[in-house]
């Protein structure tokens, strides 16, 4: 009897210790625990993506630009797209400097996601150049900083056209090719705003929720193609140029002051975790520091608490915005 009690106590102690370890990992985490497990124990991007043909949209700045650099260093063959061809040429030049890729290994392809009539021809251009597309990274899009009551409805139309309809249009043409090959990866850079709701981004949140719903549904339509992966990346605040290019209350107005971005996750860290997700076919990856990471978990498992917390955070977010500082400045972890 005593031996049995001791064993039970030992098992309970072990379980408590394991729980504490997981709690400590979570408190220090900058991604969901499934993703961080894959980063430590899973497949490495260096092995999985070398020699693969990867098409990155929104590659002229921010997360897309950094993804392009890291993919070049890994030895992936690249098609890079955005509206600004001069910026794409700059990105290509740097890729050639930091990698062993040759001129022909990187295709610069100007692309406007809102011009859906051009997407089939663009897909064919990539296929003509490389013969295949292994990975599509849907990264193009714009965020928003405006209150709903102040915002013209044509802004919402523009957000949906770019972030949602443009993305699924390009996906349709690339997916046709992947279905023929019976393999490939569709990677979409969504946002933690596709999981929760937040002020100053009603249209942006709506577009990202639409992407989440679309790709979760699309995944269920592809069960006959087990080697086609649908991967959704949900970053929180990241150091990038996204704030400088946000939608505001009308289409003609740009944001006056993007504020200090140093408190946000470094872009290279976000890109690295994205590539880990791609290498390991993580269906949905949350890439964020706290408190947004905590809110993702709350929204998933305790939505009533999440609503309460987002009301508190949202009030501060609006105050920050009206004061001319970054909306997320006061509760994001400062980066050294």
TrEMBL record:
Organism domain of life: Eukaryota
UniProt keyword Oxidoreductase present: yes
InterPro entries: NAD(P)-bd_dom_sf, Sc_DH/Rdtase_CS, SDR_fam, SDR_family_member_7
GO MF entries: oxidoreductase activity
Entries under CDD domains matching the protein: 11beta-HSD1_like_SDR_c
Key words, A-Z: Oxidoreductase
Keyword DNA damage among UniProt keywords: no
Pfam families: adh_short
Family: Belongs to the short-chain dehydrogenases/reductases (SDR) family.
Matching PANTHER family: DEHYDROGENASE/REDUCTASE SDR FAMILY MEMBER 7-RELATED, DEHYDROGENASE_REDUCTASE SDR FAMILY MEMBER 7
Record-given protein name: DHRS7 reductase
Organism: Hirundo rustica rustica
């Amino acid at each position: 009897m005593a031996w049995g009690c001791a064993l039970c106590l030992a098992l309970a102690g072990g379980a408590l210790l394991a729980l504490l370890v997981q709690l400590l990992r979570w408190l220090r985490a900058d991604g969901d625990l499934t993703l961080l497990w894959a980063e430590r124990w899973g497949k490495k991007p260096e092995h999985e993506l070398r020699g693969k043909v990867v098409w990155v949209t929104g590659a002229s700045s921010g997360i897309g630009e950094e993804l392009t650099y890291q993919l070049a260093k890994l030895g992936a063959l690249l098609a890079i797209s955005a509206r600004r061809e001069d910026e794409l040429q700059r990105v290509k030049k740097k890729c050639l400097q930091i990698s062993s890729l040759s001129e022909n290994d990187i295709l610069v392809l100007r692309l406007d996601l809102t011009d859906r009539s051009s997407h089939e021809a663009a897909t064919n251009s990539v296929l003509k150049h490389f013969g295949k597309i292994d990975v599509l990274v849907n990264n193009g899009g714009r965020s928003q900083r405006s209150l709903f009551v102040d915002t013209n409805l044509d802004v919402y139309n523009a957000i949906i056209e770019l972030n949602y309809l443009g993305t699924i249009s390009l996906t349709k043409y690339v997916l046709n090719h992947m279905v023929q090959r019976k393999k490939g990866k569709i990677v979409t850079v969504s946002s933690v705003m596709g999981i929760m709701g937040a002020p100053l981004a009603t249209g942006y949140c709506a577009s990202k929720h639409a992407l989440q719903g679309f790709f979760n549904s699309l995944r269920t339509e592809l069960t006959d193609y087990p080697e086609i992966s649908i991967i959704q990346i949900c970053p929180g605040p990241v150091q990038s140029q996204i704030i400088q290019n946000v939608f505001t209350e009308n289409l003609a107005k740009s944001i006056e002051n993007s504020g200090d971005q140093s408190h946000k996750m470094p872009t290279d860290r976000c890109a690295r975790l994205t590539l880990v997700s791609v290498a390991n076919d993580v269906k949905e990856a949350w890439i964020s520091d706290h408190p947004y990471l905590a809110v993702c978990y709350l929204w998933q498992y305790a939505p009533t608490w999440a609503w309460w917390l987002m009301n508190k955070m949202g009030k501060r977010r609006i105050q920050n915005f009206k004061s001319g500082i970054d909306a997320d400045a006061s509760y994001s972890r400062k980066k050294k």
